Amino acid sequence: MFTAIAAVATIGVTGIYFETRTCSIYAGPCHYNSEIMTDGRGAIVALGFESGQGLDGLAAAAVVLGDVNLNLSANRQAVIYIDSAATEEQGQRMTDYLKPRAGLGSVVSVQPAQIQLEVSGLDSELRVSAGGITVIAAETNSSECHTCSMAGVLWFKPLVLGTKVDVATVQRQSFCDPLLGETWSRGEESAAFVGTFAW
User: Among the four residues 20, 80, 136, 160, which has the most C-beta atoms within 10 Å?
Assistant: First the structure.
C-alpha cells in the first residue's frame, strides 16, 4: 500500500479516495518512458466524505489537466464538481479543503453535480453528472493489467495529500466537459489509485 502524508493542517476529515490518470502509473520502465513525454496530462480525482466537519455522506470530484505529463507540469487547470446534495456552506468547505491538498493548479470552475462513488477494495466505480450530462465515468478492479511485459515499477504518487492507496487497473475511464477543452476515453491499464484519505 502506498501512503502519501499530508503536509497541511489536520482538520479531522476522512473518507474514500479514487484517482485515475491518463497514463499507466505502474508499469515497466520502457512503457513509462514511452508515455512520459506524450501522455499523462489528465487525472480524475474523487473523494467520498465519511466523517468530520459535517460532510458525512457527501462527495467531491475534480478533473486536472496539465500542459504536459502531470509529473512534469506546474501549469495545471482544474474543474471541481461538488455534490449537489451539499449546502452552499458545505460545498465551499469541500472546495477550501481540496484546493491546498491537491495539485489542481488554476480552478476554472466549481459546479454542482450528481456524484456516485463506490469503493470496495480495488473494485470501484465513479460517475459524475453535471447539467444532465455524464461528464465522468470510470471503473477499476483488481485484474492484472497486461499492457506491459516487463516488471512493474510505481512511477507516480496520488495528487491528493493524506491518502493511503493501492494501485488498481482501470477498466474504463472517460471525461467530457468543454470547460477544459479536453476529452478522453481510455481503459485496460494500471492507471488508478484507490483507497482512503485522512486530513
Answer: 20
- Distance between CA atoms of residues 60 and 113, nearest Å: 9
Rg over alpha carbons for the chain, rounded to the nearest Å, is: 16
DSSP 37: T
Of 141, 155, 156, 136, nearest in space to 189 by CA: 141
The single residue listed with the C-alpha cell 491538498 is 101
pLDDT tens digits, 92-125: 999 999 999 998 999 999 999 999 999 999 999 9
Strand 133-141 with 163-177, pairing:
antiparallel
Q: How far apart are the C-alpha atoms of 43 and 70, rounded to whole Å?
A: 8
Phi, psi of 148 (to 5 degrees): -125, 135
